[in-house]
Amino acid sequence: MSSPKPVLTREELEVRLRQTGAERYHNLHRFHRRLHNGQSTYEEVQAWALNRYYYQAMIPIKDATILTRMPDVRDRRHWRIRIEDHDGRDEGDGGIERWLKLTDSLGFSRDYVISTQGILPGTRFAVEAYVEFCRTRTLLEAIASSLTELFSPAIIDERVAGMLAHYDFVSKDTLAYFSQRPVQAKRDSEFALDYVKQNAATRAGQDAVLAALEFKCSVLWAQLDALWSAYVDRAVPPGAWMPGSEATHGQAA
Amino acid sequence: MSSPKPVLTREELEVRLRQTGAERYHNLHRFHRRLHNGQSTYEEVQAWALNRYYYQAMIPIKDATILTRMPDVRDRRHWRIRIEDHDGRDEGDGGIERWLKLTDSLGFSRDYVISTQGILPGTRFAVEAYVEFCRTRTLLEAIASSLTELFSPAIIDERVAGMLAHYDFVSKDTLAYFSQRPVQAKRDSEFALDYVKQNAATRAGQDAVLAALEFKCSVLWAQLDALWSAYVDRAVPPGAWMPGSEATHGQAA
After folding, report:
1. Are B125 and A222 inside 8 Å of each other by CB?
2. Local structure of residue A220 (DSSP, 8 states)
């Protein structure tokens, strides 16, 4: 038998969380590399935007789920900002709306995108697993699962610069979603990191926090796996969006 | 506006259900074709058995979930048999135990298989989506989602004959799981088919039944997509089983 694992200091826990990101965040996925290197086809970018819409659309549901579980009003005030960022304050505002500007520009009708009828089962199952995780695990684990945002400013810089350089069908306007995210993600991930460092007081709690971040990395990774299989390797599952199909030509330009 | 869709006769509903299977069941997936044609490597067969263990292991959980939602004692008596088939009556009995004989024969330790630590996130998310579907949808939809069993005797015949013909590392003993399944699946799917034909009395209910079967086909399909991506295309996600890794060499031969 090995001796029981020692409780980590807050700094050690942060180092391990950052190490998890360095090993498992989806900036390491071949689909991300392909996308920002300019190797993706127009149809692959379409498929990425269409599928990722579902992830974006479910983020406020996920955050509201966490809100239902927060006993502390100060925590809730802070966490509520995430919902406001995604849902906006008025018609035409918010992160989801900005994501729809991207899918508009790629020729999808809003009705089709919002229906999510063309997304991959792998996308749906991964995103639903994330919401379910935040519903059923401890509040500490639910908050820890948001910590992929520690790593998102870097991937967004790389993605936006790469996509603007390589694809004439994207512009700063159509990528407006990403212009807001680094500042929001930094603010949100600082709150979440402080929370888990303060509240993961036992080694079991710390291990649960690390496992929650691994889980969330797998949620993001699995979405890119599904995109690669369907649209790079061209094995589209039955019922999912087919490049060039009618459903893309709705009310959008 | 089109006129409202007419209610289908019971026979028409059955025809559409069988049509859904003919178009979406995972016997059409390239991983299945590769497996039964003898093109899979030993490592691919290992990965298939390891991942599918999680599906097998969660079937009684899924069926118990449905049992919690059945008000009719006669329905419950019938549905309970599914749990008995998978869990067995005694130590060493039941479908899960027979599946473990397969993973034993492929060099995995039981502890490793049962821990499910090496399975693909895509497997986990798909299987959990299935259990969650049966927990949150109507009882009619939950029962309808089991109807892939209408199509399983044919795929089992094809799989077992193909695997015995092509792989010297499988035998009738190691494939014992499948020897019991066709009879059980026929009995179970006849019950479920009768149930949905009797209880889907509106067109909306019938459409929900058809959508539930499509959903379940996508649960099976997504599992084979994940296997192909990781082990045929050789892009194993972080944390999943790596062919040849230590974890396969446990207490089994």
Report:
1. yes
2. H
